[in-house]
Structures are given as structure tokens and as C-alpha cells.
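Handout, section 4.2: multi-component inputs.
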Amino acid sequence: MALKVSSIPSLPRVNNGLARLLPIATTLLATVIAILPVRLPGYAALTPAFALMAVYHWTIYRPDLLPPLGLFAVGLTQDLLAGAPVGVTALLLLLARAAVLRQRRHFIDRTFAFVWGGFTLLAVTAMAALWALQCLLQFTVFDVRATVFRAVLTIAIFPAASFALGRTQRALIGATP
Amino acid sequence: MLRPLQLRATIQRTAPPLLVVLAAAIIVLGKADETMFASLRTMLGDDFAPALETLSRPLSAAATLIDRIGGVFTMYGDNQRLERENARLLQWQQAALKLSADNRELRRLLKAVPQNAVSYVTARVIADAGGGFARTVMVDAGADQGLARGQAAMTGEGLVGRLTEVGRRAARILLITDLNSRIPVVVAGTHANAVLAGDNSERPRLLYAADPRGIKIGDRIVTSGEGGVFPPDLPVGVVASLDHGGPRVEPYAGLSRLSQLLVADYGLASGLPQPTPVAGRRNRRPAPPVSDEASVR
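Output:
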């Protein structure tokens, strides 16, 4: 039973090659947006986890088009480009995908508030895990406040990202199943 | 024999856990040998540099626009301030001209060896680390423009950081606020050496000062030139607080608003005869500095 829930459901097939690439492409775009320099004081430390939003959205609505291998590559790209310890984002995104896929059936056809609540849980867990992992890797205790603010900002921006992703999805792939 | 459908199902089931294990293994490997992914990093940086440059342009334009709109409201005050500052600077200009002439004359008398000229490369910031666990930026210039590992990155105000990875057309700069940044500094006008150590906060700490109690708020901090990585007397910042963890330094350069940087080549590694202890110390650094490439140039 557990296996059945966490395995990829059969969704209407998408034949347009470009549209099939959309989930991975937007996740990659999200990682690039996250490293663009924004000249706001303190922003660099509080950059929202845009890739996490993309992973959450696509795992709920089109998990068939977000292959783990692609996600792994996107995660590695972000780590290499951002100068972060390599593999951390890849691990985080893969675990996020697995966690969301397991609970996916609860989020289909639910109100946006419910979906947002789910993302809140995911973002808080992911940020806490990221903080712990980074502390462990760099033998130091990072300021928790930065991580808390980052989580809050990530959760606050999610509706906008979800709206943009939903619109693109409807335009290129079709309605949410 | 597995049929294609079964095979597909098997891959779908086993791939995610395998990739998770692989990612974890990469983290451990990367931690064990931090240079392992360096070439991959610079390669990817080169590949993504044009895209990052294009995407960062509108952001930079927006920031400039906001600055300009803000400037309209403060124009009168700014003008008054600048006029006062200009009057003061004109006096300084006279003093500087006189000192410069004195200096030249004294150098001539002492037959001092002229310092080698500094060449600058201007580079634009196209990416930052994003996420608080590292303080680095990427710039849109690399070895093709004459950049090399170990060079100092500055703004007009002061030191920003050190070039740690240099690709062909992009380079990464470790900011002085990064957890891994250690810069030999000195309190200006004294011989009080210390190490400026970043801890990912906005204000790096002064460590290993011989006499920490002698350091006061408002003291100017400049590079000491120890270790031969940076030349001496580059402005770094000013002591801003004295908490129990030691004095903290407010960098002169606005590190959260970086857009254009100057990368200075002081020719320190270009085969100049260096005192032996300095050269010996440099050889102990994990990766060789610029000397080889620079001496070829």
C-alpha cells in the first residue's frame, strides 16, 4: 500500500516535448533566480528557497514530469554555481520530492490554503534540516534567526510562485488533473 | 526476463533512494576533499556566466532606478553635503600635492626602488551565494581578462574579498565576511597585527590581536601584507563594536550592495623576489597561488 502511494501515478500523457521539460526547466530557473544578485541589504542571506517551491508544485501536480535524475542534476548545478557544499541542495530537493510524493493524494483537489499549509510544513522542515546539515558540514553553529527569516520569506512568497507555476502549467501542459 | 514495463517500474522505484545515497556520498566526498569539485565549478560558472549576466542586468537596472528616484528627494541635502565635502577635499588636494612632491623628492634622495604599477580589471557581480551559509559572489570576468587566483577584489571604498576560483570568463570571490575568510590586517598607524575572520555576519571579527584592549571603536583597519597574499595598507574597515567575542569591524565596502568591483593585480605573485619566509608560508597554502600563470603573462 505504502509503495503504491509513493509511486508515480499515471497522469494524462503530455506529448509536447517542450511542455514535458517545463517542470525541470522551471526548477532550474528557480535555482538561477536564487543566486541572482539583488542589491538589498541582507537579502543574500534571506534569499527564498525558490527551487523548493517548484519541487513542491510539480510533485503535487505533475510528478511524472519531474524525474529524480533531473532534480538531482538541478540540485548539483545550484550547489556548484552558488559555491555551496556540493550535494546539499540535490539531497534536499530529492528528499522533499519523496516526502511530498508520499503525501500527494491529500493535496489533490484541495483549497489553496490547504496546499499552502502543506508547503509551510515542508519549508519549515527543509530549512531546519538544511541548517542542521550546514552546521554539521562546516563545524559551526549558524545564526538560527537567518534561517527562520528565510523560511518565513519562502512561505510568504509561495503563493506568487504557485500562481506563476500554475499559469505556466495550464498554458503549456493543460489543466491540473 | 524483465519486460520493458517492469523494468521501468523497477527503475522508478529504485532511482530515488539511489540518488539520495549518491547525493549524500557526494557531500561526504566534497567535504573530504574541498578541491574535488573546483574544476567542475569553474566550468559550470563559465557556462552559466552569459545567462547570469543577462538575467542580472534588469535587477541591476531596477536597483539603479530606485537609487535615482530616491536621489531626487535627497538632492538638495546631497548637494549641500557635497559642496561642504568638496571644499574640504580641495584643502586635502593641496596637502596631497605637497606631500606627493615631498615623497618623490625623498624617494629620489633615498634611491628607493619604485613600487610596481597596479593594474585593475573592472568586473560586474552576476551572482551571489543565495542562502546565508556562504558569502561569495561571482563576477563576469575571468582568466581571459587577466584575473588570477588570490587577487584582491575591491570597491572604491575598500577591500571586498579574494578571488578563490577563476574560470575563463567568470570568477568567484570569497567575501571578507565569509566563514572561511581570514585576512591578515593591522590597526592603521600601529603595528598591532590581527586576523580579520569572517563568520557570515555583516561584521567580521578581529582575532589574535596582540593587545585586544588597545583596540578602540573607530580604529581604521587595513591589510598588513603579511603572508604575501595582499599588499599592505588596503583599506578594510573600521572597528565598530567591542563585544565579548572580540572587536568587530564594519567593512568600508557595502558588501550587500555590490555591483561593480575592481580586481587589483599588485604583481605580488608575478615572480617578484619575495623574502624567503613569505614564499615559504605561501607554499603551505592548500592550492598554489597565481605565480605560474602570472609569470607567464
